[in-house]
Amino acid sequence: MKLYLILFFSFTSGMLLAQNQYPKDYFDSPLKIPIILSGTFGELRSNHFHSGIDIKTQGKEGIPVYAPADGYISRIKVGQYGFGKALYMNHPNGYTTVYAHLRKFAGDIQSYVKKNQYKKQKYAIGNLFPKQDKFPIKKGDIIGYTGDTGSSGGPHLHYEIRDTKTENIINPLFFSFNVDDTIKPTVNQLMVYPLSDEARINNFAKKTSLELKKISEGEFVTDRINASGTIGFGINVFDRLNGASNKNGIFSLEMKVNGNRVYYHDVETFSFAESKYINLHIDYAHYKKYRKRFQKTHKVTPNKLSLYEDLVNNGKINIEENSNYTVEIISSDFNKNQTRIKIPIKGVKSTLIFKKLDTTDYKIKSTDFNKFKLQNVTVAFPKNTFYQDSFIDFKLNNGVASVHERTVPLDKKYTLTFGISHLSDAQRQQVYIANVDNPKYPRYVSTKKKIDKAYTSTKSLGKYTLNYDTKKPSISLVNIQNGKWISKNKTLKVKIKDKETGIRDYRATIDNEWILMEYNHKKGILTYDFSDKKLVGSKHIFKIVVSDNVGNTKTLKATFFKK
């Protein structure tokens, strides 16, 4: 009982310490609508942890975003992907708030951005860093409007709070950001892993899924497992919040063995630099095969995440013969709703013969530069691309280069090169490297070319080949017709598309003057706002040139009349 009280006090006092170090009632909500989340802080995403909270905007765009406190706009970003249109606001208390996927900026900020876009003749202009006195903001000022720009899956506001000095991201819920949540996390599946050569689980040397038996709400137990050697666990779990059906991430994960904590992590704060280690935090191979993420309750040596606390043997459990163990895994959300699983274990000597390690002709020493070549294909791995020494498969069959398995995570990009000296000039122009893990759907990967080679840099292992794109992009008018009056139109829209390698670039003019067309890549729609510039006369020539990623180019011209 005393041990339980000590552990409980340690957990709750740690939470209170974290909560008390952040200012309360300093930041107001950036939206004046009920706050319902579609994404939580630290949620598991592809190759990174979610760096903010996603606030639902009632399925629509254009909701005003208000400054939650005094400050100034320190950075403005306009990108086709990622955050799309984003604002960064510095505050006197040492924190920065971030607002992403905006539809547009407010007032003078919007004018400033458009001026820079027209100056650079680009929609995506990267980052702007206004001087501190350029855009002073008072609490409650409108700074932008919610949208769906960038790599957004639908209208919402992505909201972050960062430490201005370190740029570490902090869970916004620590800042009195009240969100209703009375629902316990949902566990889909529990996995147990053999972690040493001699480890066995129910006399098998492979990971095993454990059936969960419900005892009560939020309480589960498994059948007893017989094990030997060093083992670990992984859990597929999500959390739901009140008023939303979204499957969100949990806040913390804890594991106890015979009542003693041996593993704990939570998502209070982390840095962008460490976010990539999510691929070591999860069962990456299982995710790549089955699209299910299992968070491991054990830490591998190359994993540099700072999330972990109170690790004993890095969460790995050494099972001794004839000993009994009770493992408890506790999933918690931010509001301390918990789901608990108990796993009884008995140490039983295995009769299974040890398995020999697989070897190939291609050995990777992780701390060295490694380069291999087969006919016209070369792979080059910089130092520390792999997290550990390993043997990899490297094959070439009918022009398809198989570079090991995509189930292995990498820390750095490697270079894959195909020789193209045997191709004609026309073929060299139209050739590109495609990922063919799914041969029915070849996928363009960013390809650079020199006279005798085509190459790409990627962090994904898998299958690659040379493909050819011989087709020009398509362009179609959406809300105008050639030779017609469009006096009532507030915008000019066209649809562009390229099926194979995708759109690389576009340039549009009216009467030979560049115009800003915003590209919604999800719908393939380019939009020009006629309020940007007053037209002279009534007859006008619209021209647009669109290029794909191998340089195939399509031009469309149209005449319209508008005063």
Describe this structure in words.
This protein is mostly beta strands and 563 residues long. The chain has five helices and 49 strands. The strands form nine sheets. Strands 15, 16, 17, 18, 19, 20, 21, 22, 24, 25, 26, 27 and 28 form a 13-stranded mixed β-sheet that branches. The chain is globular, with a radius of gyration of 28 Å.
Summarize the helices and strands and which ones pair or pack.
Elements: H1 2-20, E1 37-39, E2 44-45, E3 48-49, E4 53-56, E5 64-66, E6 71-78, E7 85-90, E8 95-100, E9 102-105, H2 107-120, E10 126-128, E11 136-137, E12 142-146, E13 156-163, E14 169-170, E15 186-194, E16 200-201, E17 208-210, E18 213-216, E19 219-221, E20 225-238, E21 252-257, E22 260-266, E23 269-270, H3 278-281, H4 284-290, E24 295-296, E25 308-309, E26 317-319, E27 324-332, E28 338-347, E29 362-364, E30 370-374, E31 377-381, E32 390-392, E33 394-397, E34 400-403, E35 414-419, H5 425-430, E36 431-435, E37 443-444, E38 448-450, E39 453-458, E40 462-468, E41 474-477, E42 484-485, E43 491-497, E44 503-510, E45 513-514, E46 517-520, E47 525-529, E48 539-548, E49 553-561
Parallel strand pairs: 19-28, 20-28, 42-49
Antiparallel strand pairs: 1-4, 2-3, 4-13, 5-12, 6-7, 6-10, 6-11, 7-8, 8-13, 9-12, 13-14, 14-23, 15-17, 15-20, 16-20, 18-19, 20-24, 20-26, 21-22, 21-27, 22-25, 27-28, 29-32, 30-31, 31-35, 33-34, 34-40, 35-39, 36-37, 36-40, 38-39, 41-43, 43-47, 44-45, 44-48, 46-47, 48-49
